[in-house]
Amino acid sequence: MVLDGLGGLPHPETEKTELETAQTPNLNSLAKKGICGLVEPISPGLTPGSGPAHLALFGYDPFRFTIGRGVLEALGIDFSLQERDVAARGNFCTIDDEGVISDRRAGRISTEKCIELCQQLSQIKVNDIQLLVSPVKEHRFVIVFRGDNLCPELGDSDPQQVGLRPNQVVALAPEARETAALANEFIGKAKALLANSYPANMVLLRGFSQYPHFPAMSDVYKVKPAAIVTYPMYRGLAKLVGMEVVDSGDSIEEEFAALTRHYASHDFLFLHIKQTDTAGEDGDFLRKVQVIEEVDAALPQLLNLQPEVIVVTGDHSTPALLKAHSWHPVPFLLYSQWCRPDDVVEFSEPACAKGSLGRFPALEVMPLALANALKLTKFGA
Amino acid sequence: MVLDGLGGLPHPETEKTELETAQTPNLNSLAKKGICGLVEPISPGLTPGSGPAHLALFGYDPFRFTIGRGVLEALGIDFSLQERDVAARGNFCTIDDEGVISDRRAGRISTEKCIELCQQLSQIKVNDIQLLVSPVKEHRFVIVFRGDNLCPELGDSDPQQVGLRPNQVVALAPEARETAALANEFIGKAKALLANSYPANMVLLRGFSQYPHFPAMSDVYKVKPAAIVTYPMYRGLAKLVGMEVVDSGDSIEEEFAALTRHYASHDFLFLHIKQTDTAGEDGDFLRKVQVIEEVDAALPQLLNLQPEVIVVTGDHSTPALLKAHSWHPVPFLLYSQWCRPDDVVEFSEPACAKGSLGRFPALEVMPLALANALKLTKFGA
Q1: Between 20 and 30 A from B262 (CA), which of A121, B77, B269, B305?
Q2: CB-CB contact of B339 with B35 (8 Å)
């Protein structure tokens, strides 16, 4: 069970974090029976995005298993990417009469405006390539190039700086020359089409990428995994590592019901709680506390299933005080019949810091969980 | 001092591990004066075999310094392998009229029967190669091919699965073709010879390997090492890293006497206590407790020698509750005049979990021990 952005920072008045503030009798009792520690999602001091942080929890080294920005953005809107598609992240931006970028986000136009402009861009024809332009939010969109022999080895048109002209898209490999030409042709036509749409009078593209092929968890770990997730990007991530994404509902209550419904047919279940992170990002300390308490109250439903191994942690910290993801290591607890309990009796940052697992990398979570399920064979004789 | 399989799991009634249950006043007082931690033998979650686990303690990365199954089995029976020998692990097995394996272990024939059949197999002649077939236990034996130009780069004949025919031994490198032919010729002749020895009517070979050449501890660490060990496989391992294996007796008492006897002539002594692991493998919680207490009672003999550095740990955990090696990290203590003691006052899993060394990889043990002996020079200026 991953509570997104679980880790927090102490409230200045109470000196307690969100997790310390929450009443969590069920999590505390599980911590008492289990072993605890603090997880470093990626590397100490690094603030992780949710993509790499989850990959690490599932045992995929995020420095090796990378996901392009375009693909990640497409996963985030549940866009069904095909094998040969090339996706890029797009920004509507503002350029001046000289073609120099004056605002990389076109004054953060409304999402409605973005939808309207994306419909216009979808009219553009470039050779026999299919162009799929989908709005995300405000100035952000996804563009997918669909056709034969496309290659994502392309530089960005987005210089990520105002005061410069957009870059020509360059091929970073010989086989990408044709795709580079197509991208530049699209950008030229978009510029013409948007000429009168100030402030959104130009587009910037970056992160050209294709759907990556990661080894499936069923092959790597010989498990039959299910994902109970409510947000598009996490659905996409779960599919990337070969999980079956089951019907999960929208609320925490519905997710726990889905867990019970799909428990018997799988032997690895990933239950993702998004609301902790959302409350943290909103800077809403109290709402994050309440979400944690709601999860704690639902925990007995999970315990009733009597899994051999239970892991409760977060993918990263999202302290309400920072209103953002942070680098702080994340509370972790593991329970199994064979875990050799430590003396932690409470699920919180300071208590986990004293757990027998210490501070440890997220990549160790899967081997530890599988070992506790007695699923790993001996190394050497 | 390595207590094999030292780490344990709490007894369901007392909630104390073997080491926590044992009365160990001498180890506790050493823990109080020293620093403690938990060692990860190979990698978190991995259950180690004794071979790689010891190599790691001696500072040899077990992923890099590998020992073939055939060689390891030969070490285990104190077989004196020569430089160019190729050793393989053998199983007597049962095949049906179609040549399909129906039992990979030939119903676990008695060791007496194994000895008798190995004598028969020793009669086989294959070209001018010497064939040495030695019984191990029950259905297990070691075969050593001795002659010129042998190469161990061979596939297994053992498919490690019933319902299949034994594999032809294939050469995995061009220079192994001749050895593959010799191995297949031996297997053919063994099959003919065993035709009437049902259930042991066929042999399976795996892990063809040659004695590996590891750097000697005397070269790597500039020490003069001695090993006090009572079991063949550990003698073999100690020799592999260049230790002098001294006459050690059989009992724990005799081992401590050997330690005293050989102390002055060496400056690194490896004292191996096997009985903790044996009791753990037998699921005999109480006997493991007693072995630990016997070692604790003998400890003053070691302390009287006043070594500059004392390390007490295990190669891995063997909880009596699991009756097998396990992945759990292992209690560790180091004492020296220069160790900067922590506040651990007891030698046990939960106490070591709070030691200032934390949870750390076995490969760090040798540098730490040498540093505490003031034997390492400064890195950089």
Answers
A1: B77
A2: yes
